[in-house]
Each structure stands twice: as structure tokens, then as C-alpha cells.
Specification:
The chain is an all-alpha fold. The protein is 86% helix and 0% strand. Keywords: Membrane, Transmembrane, Transmembrane helix.
Amino acid sequence: MKNLFCKLKNKLGAAAVKSRSILAGNAGEGYIDTAIKILIAVVLGALLLAGLYALFGETVLPTLVQRIKEMFNYAG
């Protein structure tokens, strides 16, 4: 019986040490930082694409179409 209690005490001590080391570790802390960086990159990329689409849609493309029509207008 005394031997059983000794084994149980050793196993509980080992489990306590293992759980303490798991709770004290910060091994998964980098995942949150990486997720935030990816989210920021996606948002900035979307804003950049929206800005380029607005620029080309309203400024560059109409003048480009007008120049092409003038270039091929042989009736002059």
C-alpha cells in the first residue's frame, strides 16, 4: 500500500511539473502576430487595388480611349 502511494505521489508530481511548464510556455504566441500581419497586408492590398481601380477607371482610361479614337480618326 505504501508503494502504491509513493507511485501515485510521483505521478502527480510529474503531472504538476508538466502542466506548470505547459502553462508557463509561450510557444504559440507568434501565431497571433502572424495573423495580424496577414490581416494588415490583405487590408492594405485591397485599399491599394481600390485606389488603382478608381484612378484607372476615372482618369486614365477615358483619356486613353479618347486618344485612341483621335488617332484612328482619318476623316480629320
